[in-house]
Amino acid sequence: MTNIRVDVVLPCLNEARALPWILERLPIGYRAIVVDNGSTDGSPDVARALGAHVVHESRRGFGAAAHAGLLAATAPIVAFCDADASMDPRDLPRVVDPISDDAADLVLGRRRPTTRNAWPPHARLANTYLSWRLRRITGVNIHDLGPMRAARRDHLLALDLLDRRSGYPLEMFLSAAAADWRILEVDTGYAPRVGRSKVTGTVRGTLTAIKDMSALLAATQRGARS
Ligand SMILES: Nc1nc2c(ncn2[C@@H]2O[C@H](COP(=O)(O)OP(=O)(O)O)[C@@H](O)[C@H]2O)c(=O)[nH]1
Ligand SMILES: [Mg+2]
To answer: What residues line ligand 1, using a CB cutoff of 6 Å?
Structure first.
């Protein structure tokens, strides 16, 4: 068997139609950990049939799924990727290689749309504003807070992340910045997802994301002032 260098956490809520495209595009040495978050469309069976390691997380929420994947990982490097085919697993080495080369501690994929309509305008605008605030708060030169990212597993576990909803990627970034990690941004492609969005493509999902993220930002700024 090939040595598993990287575990790829794929939070999954009803992504059966996207999984085949994703799983067949994983680079060699990368293992998929599909975290099923209560899918009703047969996602776990599809994932297992295609050779992925499947874990279940009954607590709903993007962060709950992402964190369960991190806890299930055993490889030295852990990468995260959406399971909706909006991001190409062939881009994963772009976020992973600087970690293996010890050139960075956290690498974030900056989403670069590969077609029109890949990114709903409200989500894009919210993200540009968020990135601007994050640059001001942390001094890290980022332009997107996207879900494709990588870091060392032991480092991620040591961050002790608490958010279990849509604030998880933000908490990871803020905690890493507070711990003076070397944070690097690289370009990754972004295409229209397969199926319906659960977070930023819906009003409810967007409002939850804003609420979760605002609370984290407010706490960080209070911390910085005290
Ligand atoms: N929102 C949400 N996404 C989940 C959950 N569990 C797993 N996911 C997955 O998290 C990823 C991101 O969600 P997505 O709907 O693509 O959000 P978007 O990228 O903002 O449109 C997808 O792969 C989902 O299937 C959950 O409980 N809530
Ligand atoms: Mg998505």
So the answer is: 11-13, 15, 37, 60-62, 65, 82-84, 193, 197-201, 205
